[in-house]
Write a structure and sequence with these properties.
Layout lengths: L6 E4 L5 H12 L3 E4 L4 H15 L3 E3 L7 H15 L4 E4 L14 H29 L3 E6 L12 H21 L4 E8 L2 E2 L9 H8 L6 E2 H11 L11 E4 L3 H4 L5
Parallel strand pairs: 1-2, 1-4, 2-3, 4-5, 5-6, 6-9, 7-8
């Protein structure tokens, strides 16, 4: 129960990586604010975790890049437990498109969610943590596409690379308040979304040195370490969890 008496916000957590992070945090004693843009998905995910673990998981659905939603999540965490200890900005969108035809609407939506949502959630959470004077942890979800180029993902990849730079910049702003900030860059990961592609598992198993894509527990395990007391002296860093793919970077195409 290493997260007993700790409160966390996890965005984009209705399924996949975010859901597993919430599940593991609650299992280890944390109170979790679970967010997803889909209200039904958010509510069902929180209910499933509460049923399975009998822990405290509260659904706060909404667009994680919307300032009202951000403030609602922070306020909810504080109203339930009096504090906010951890924020995992997991929400993000991927809008594929050829560079020559990529639309402004698609570009700015990717930046709004992936960058704006993370930036302003970190801002709101850090202000709360600063007020508490007890420190805290911020974790941003990057991607291997922020390190290695993928076809038709220029906007998405640049947004993920920017998150890693944001974490470095926030070291300057937040360290004096005992707030550490890091990023994780998952590689190919088996989730409900990727299972829609029948070739996904086979393709990524062939080109990943460890012989398989990640599962959600692989990413969640890394996330929990980076928001735990064991990593308090780690800040401004990025952890790649990709089974070795970025070491050799064969294309899936």
């Amino acid at each position: 129960m290493q997260f007993r008496n700790k409160t966390a916000i996890v965005t984009g957590a209705g399924q996949g990586i975010g859901f597993e992070i919430c599940r593991q945090l609650v299992k280890k004693g944390a109170t979790v604010i679970l967010n997803d843009i889909d209200p039904a998905l958010s509510d069902n995910a929180a209910r499933q975790i509460q049923t399975e673990i009998k822990g405290n998981c509260v659904s706060v659905p909404g667009d994680s890049s919307d300032m009202n939603c951000i403030q609602t999540m922070v306020s909810k965490a504080v109203s339930i437990s009096g504090q906010l200890d951890m924020v995992i900005a997991n929400a993000g969108i991927t809008l594929y498109g050829d560079f020559f035809n990529y639309s402004p609407d698609a570009f700015y939506r990717v930046m709004q969610v992936n960058l704006g949502g993370t930036f302003f959630l970190a801002q709101a959470a850090a202000n709360q943590m600063k007020q508490q004077q007890s420190g805290g942890s911020l974790l941003f979800m990057s991607s291997v596409t922020g390190h290695q180029a993928h076809k038709n993902l220029a906007a998405y990849g640049m947004s993920k690379a920017a998150l890693e730079m944001l974490a470095k910049y926030l070291v300057i702003e937040l360290s004096e308040y005992a707030i550490n900030v890091n990023t994780i860059a998952p590689g190919a990961t088996t989730t409900e979304r990727t299972l829609d592609d029948p070739a996904y598992q086979t393709t990524w198993s062939k080109i990943t040195p460890m012989g398989r894509p990640a599962n959600v527990s692989d990413i969640a395990n890394a996330a929990l370490f980076l928001v735990s007391e064991e990593s308090r002296h780690i800040t401004g860093q990025n952890l790649v969890v990709d089974g070795g793919w970025t070491s050799i970077s064969p294309s899936p195409y």
